[in-house]
Amino acid sequence: MLHEPLSPAFGALLEGIPLAGLDAAGFRQLYALWQRQHLLVLRGHGLDRPGFEAFAARFGQVDPLPDLGAAESSWGVELAWAERPAFACLLHACKAPESGGATWFACLPAALRLIAPDLVARLRWLAIQHGPHAHPMVIMQPETGEHSLFLGTRRDARIMEVPQAESERLLNIAWSYGTADAVSLCHRWQPGDIVLWNNLTVMHRHDAVPAGSVRKLQRARIQGRYTLAAPIETEAA
Questions:
Q1: Name one GO molecular function term (predicted).
Q2: Which superfamily is assigned to 1-237 in CATH?
Q3: 103 near 207, Cβ under 8 Å?
Q4: Which among 3, 27, 73, 85 is most buried, taking Cβ atoms within 10 Å?
């Protein structure tokens, strides 16, 4: 499937793919590319709002969500606190801002590859508490087997079974890699754009929209289907 890389680390742009008429073989190709690239920008696809909802449903059970407006948000993944965090997320630009209002993405498998092996060896044994559930800091992407950081959200996160000061130190280090320029990309919206990303391997955040500009993004979130596991659990099995 023809595509244009969005960054050296991850992401691909596809233009003019008629998503409404995409057959099963075409969807398998799209899905495989998405799994390799972690994020796809789909432009010139020809979908209206109901068509977007139908396309999202091909990835799994969709949570109904209100449109996203002008507000700013911090780095994170959707439903990090859940036993099974959301599997995938999609945004559809119903109205794109004339200026500002970009959305940022960061690739966590690429971030893990930047970290020194001795630190990775330690992180592989640690878990982060997010609300009622904890998840490994290093996970194995369930469908591809790729290893990835999983940071969730920074606020109120704590690494289990280490002193508070050490938890903060390690989280600060991990987040510095997870949001580094080398593993991040900025998406500036064009009308009609659809962005699809793997919520288990990609974090995101939104810039605020300046006064006088409008951003209206239709949202779709695919319900979680996997309990996250660390690579060490597979190796020990």
A1: dioxygenase activity
A2: Clavaminate synthase-like (3.60.130.10)
A3: yes
A4: 85
Q: What is the DSSP string of the chain?
A: ---EESSSSS-EEEES--GGG--HHHHHHHHHHHHHHSEEEEES----HHHHHHHHHTTSPEEP-PPB-S----SB-TTTTSSS--SEEEEEEEE--SSS--EEEEEHHHHHHHS-HHHHHHHTT-EEEETTEEEESEEE-TTT--EEE---BSTT-EETTS-HHHHHHHHHHHHHHHT-GGGEEEE---TT-EEEEETTTEEEEEPPPPTT---EEEEEEEPP------HHHHHH-
For 44, the token pair is 């010139």
Provide the whole-model pTM: 0.95
Query: Per residue in 43-62, pLDDT tens?
Result: 999 899 999 999 999 999 99
